[in-house]
Write a structure and sequence with these properties.
By secondary structure, the chain is mainly α. It has a single domain, classed as ABC transporter involved in vitamin B12 uptake, BtuC. It has helices at residues 3-23, 25-54, 62-80, 83-107, 112-130, 155-159, 164-182, 184-194, 196-201, 206-232, 244-254, 259-282, 289-308, and strands at 143-145, 161-163. The protein has a two-stranded antiparallel sheet. The chain starts with a helix and ends in a 16-residue tail after the last helix.
Amino acid sequence: MSARWAYILGGVIVAGIVVAFFMDEIRTVSVLSFSLRYAVPLILAAMVGIICERSGVINIGIEGQMLMSAFAGFFGAAITGNLILGTLIGIGTGMIMGGFLAVGAVTWKMDQIIAGTIINILATGLTSFLYAQGYVLPGVTPTVRIPLLADIPLVGPVLFNNGLFTYAAIIISIVLWGLLFRTIWGLRTRSVGEKPSAADTSGIGVQRLRFVNVTFAGGLAGLAGAYLALEAAGTFERGFTAGRGFTALAIMIFGAWNPLGAMFAAIFFGLTQGVASQLQADEVLAIPPQFVNMLPYVLTIVLLAAVSGRISPPAAVGKPYEKD
């Protein structure tokens, strides 16, 4: 898909939103707010994939990292009676799972696909075995309304009246973009993902940087899992993440391994989900609801197929580094 057609598609979507806003303001704001909240874990999970793959490591285990973190965050908050502590437990669990991936993929030089698959299987098994009913959260996460900005028509209630996780996801995406493309850390990270041998020659510790980045990225997966359990649903069930980690990998590719591109791609995916849900609720389409629910995924696959031939991943991704 050329940039021109991408701009045309974006313009059509924006025009449609504006028209819908004037026709039914409350419903439009509701759909957009739902879309942004739905996109939050996808944004965070896509950031995990970007950090890992920009460092040269494929992270198929995002799903397992999110699932394990959601489990730990929910039961941590329920047992301790503290949502902040539950969130920190979720983030810490994500970093531990990221550390497992780093040990397998970086230190032991395992096949990275297999290492990530092991994490997914481990998380699914442990959360299913340890799951127990009867636990509830001590409360709900607060919503922060930013004065004045929240009063802006359409944009205000959607962007400036949200929970802390939503603000964190947007800020993290912007900060990560700045770090990747405007700092020495970002330059080194991109170099070990593109030309690790050249990075090693210039004095960069390729193995160490990959290990640290993959472990740190796991913390973002932990934040995504904590959001799902503590704010989005307020509970935990087996198979709770429902494939969001794999969806985030597609969003990462659609965003061309760029944090801002991935953020907007995730929001676009959330928008398709919000529109599909509204169509289903209004019974606009006289077709089974399963087909309506398929719409966001089908559209994502189509767009991904359209852009996949025009973008390329980091050159050294998936290749364990062997020092000459």
